Amino acid sequence: HRKVAAEAALQGGSSRRMPTMFNWEELMISKLLRRTFVAATIVAAASGFATASKAQSIADIAAKGTVTIGVLTGIPPYDTVDASGNTDGFLADMARDVAAALGTELQIVPVNNASRAAALESGRVDLLIAQMTATPERAKTFLMTNPYGAYEMRFIGLKDTKIEKLEDLAGKRVSVPKGSTQDVAVSGYGLDGLEVVRFDDDALAMQALISGQVDATAAVATVAQDTIKKRNLTDLEIKADVPIFTLYWSMAVRKDAAELHQWLNNFIYYQEVTGRINELHKKWVGVPVPGGKLPSF
After folding, report:
1. Helix (H) or strand (E) run with residue 10 in it
2. Is the CATH number of domain 58-149+251-285 3.40.190.10?
3. What is the three-class DSSP state of 7?
């Protein structure tokens, strides 16, 4: 078309044909762009439908016949290993109750502080019962349920290590599980010389204290007390004068699992009012859930 228009112009033909030819070419390009846009819209819509079809529902879990639950390990007395080498304990019992209420089989996937979020995001597990606190930051990524348990976070150190006030941590090395709530808390103290040493889970953070790699660790008080008792670590103590915080554990599901999230809230409510949560907590930890009635949000 450009050639025809150029020859017409050289031969003295009407120059008004050139815009006509070029307009026709633009029309064809416009049609092509519209077709491309429509195709892209269809693909996007199909993609949207595909995403929507992956939204996790109770019916989806019932259809596959198994609920896969990530359970935090390495935090006795909340977890242990049975005679067959399988994960057991308070969290495992909670997972069993969830599966029973759903009417499905249960697959427990052991996770730690470092791997639990990725296990849920990737779809490796349907939900987490992994002692996650419902922080605003985590709520950006997951749907966090009402709490099913509570804990007191404390410092643990040698008896001759003076930690009577927060300032006593200046110049000390403190171990924490990487990405945990105690990691966030201790890292935010801003004390001169305080070094936060991160490990993949609570057990490794505690072992760092036992082996002398750090001066103290930040841990759940009941977990620390259980470790001290079972391993006869008479030179260690919980530093009760410097509480870190008392917080709560929530279950977690993916953002597209709103129905499952609501069902779990109902499940937790029922477990509490029937006394089942305290029953399981006393079975494994020796005492009821600290703090009395669990909050909801």
Report:
1. helix 2-10
2. yes
3. helix
Predicted structure pTM score: 0.68
Task: Output the DSSP codes for 127-164.
Answer: EEEEEE---HHHHTTEEEEEEEEEEEEEEEEETTS--S
Distance CA 202, CA 35 (A): 57
**3-class DSSP state of 203:** helix
Rounded Cα–Cα distance for residues 173 and 190 (Å)? 13
For the segment 220-256, what is each residue's pLDDT rounded down to a tens digit?
Answer: 898 899 899 999 999 999 999 998 988 899 999 999 9
Cα angle 33, 34, 40; round to 5 = 90
What is the CATH code for 152-247? 3.40.190.10
Residue 126: both structure tokens together: 């349907």
Element (H, E) at 282: helix 276-285
